[in-house]
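Predicting holo structure, flavin-adenine dinucleotide bound.
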Amino acid sequence: MAHLASYSLMRGQGVSTLMAACAQRLLNAAAAAGAASSPTLLCCGSPSSRPCSSSAAAGPEPDTEVAVIGAGVVGLAIARQLALAGRAVLLLEAAGTFGTETSSRNSEVIHAGLYYPAGSLKARLCVAGKQQLYAFCKQYGVPHRRLGKLLVASSPAQLDALSALAARAAANGVSDLRPLSKSEVGQLEPAVRCEAALLSPSTGIIDSHSYMAELHRQFEEAGGTTAFYSRVVGGAVAGPLKRVRVQDANSGEETELTAGMVVNAAGLHAQAVAADLDGLPAGTIPPLHLAKGSYFSLAAGSLAHIHGSSASGSSASGGSGGGGYRFRHLVYPLPEPGTAGLGTHLTLDLAGGVRFGPDVEWLPPGTDPRTIDYSLSPTQAQPFYAAIRAYLPGLPDDSLEPSYSGVRPKVVGPGQPAGDFVVQGPAEHGVPGLVNLYGIESPGLTASLALAQLAAERLLAPDH
Ligand SMILES: Cc1cc2nc3c(=O)[nH]c(=O)nc-3n(C[C@H](O)[C@H](O)[C@H](O)COP(=O)(O)OP(=O)(O)OC[C@H]3O[C@@H](n4cnc5c(N)ncnc54)[C@H](O)[C@@H]3O)c2cc1C
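Done. Tokens:
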């Protein structure tokens, strides 16, 4: 029998086409098996011709065993995890390809797990996810670099905060931090000015698009089926047979499909998707607060001036910024207490390009994520210069160019203590066969493989 995963190649076709083709294939298979109509034979996307084994076993068979909503890095990782576990998975994505929202609008940093409160999901899944991600990148050739990060105290007043961060990291199981004196930092990064620093050797960078492409490839290879241009617009999840209403983004046509289980990994839209699922107690849906973060990149040629005339100790030229200085590490200031980000840091891409950000700009309460304006204006650069020069005094005037922005899906608002990832399964919301993920901001890319494991565990927990 031909592999049903081939349907995922039908980019530009929505779920109605997909399901029709899937149903036809089921009928063909049934006819070939001598049973005129037996839609219970197969699940759409099942890697083999085994029956669906879902929570709907006693009732009518679903169209797919699991429907995963959202093909960002987290939805992809979950879909892959479930497909590799032998589940028949249909991945529903509103856009025309994977990873077009927050997963392609971030710093692409593999975080070490320094910042998050001990015992939080962010701490646990970042530390576990980091190790899994490095192993994944190595095994499957995903471009990445473990270049390390300097966490700098820019004034004597910040030294205590640096020590506190080292203690927090240790509590999270990050034991490889190295304290550095001012002169040791000068050896490593002559352009950086600080009082002292911590070196985090396990922080790195990753080509997130290649990573997502590899997750998707493995998902398909394991028999998963993808429907792009397929926006989930509602459903009913109370019973064992979940109903999911899907709108074809091209035709506007709506289709209803059934699934034994549903995972909502819709990122910025997870709350809206959840609110449209009949049978999910509305009180379990956390609030959504949107915090935009913008990046500026270092203009071409600026690296030649970054260290002024005293470029001694600077290394060979490289990167998109032109000749002269070359950064070897990511450089992070200490997070400002009470702000919602990690500070305007210096990140590098795999080609050596330098960018700074993200800042924190709270969007008005109630902003519909579908209306987000991701543009940024050159005038936003002014506060960046001040923030960056606290650790990089040689940053030349007029060297920053608008780059891109992303938006953090937060479950807490301005001035509140940082929120955690929220991964709700039956134990949390009372609906068997449903997992909702909310607030998957940073370090969601780093934690993606660990988040996938947790989501799969909660979805498949024996009592559901
Ligand atoms: C500024 C910024 C910097 C960051 N930096 C880092 C970093 O350096 N390291 C790190 O580890 N993490 C970082 N993160 C966090 C990381 O980017 C996110 O945690 C991660 O990308 C979230 O992935 P996701 O799959 O949950 O969401 P998304 O990537 O947003 O994917 C959700 C998908 O669901 C789809 N969708 C939405 N609604 C529907 C619907 N109704 N039907 C079907 N599909 C739907 C969307 O089209 C989208 O493709 C950063 C985030 C931001 C905003």
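The first helix runs from residue 15 to 32.
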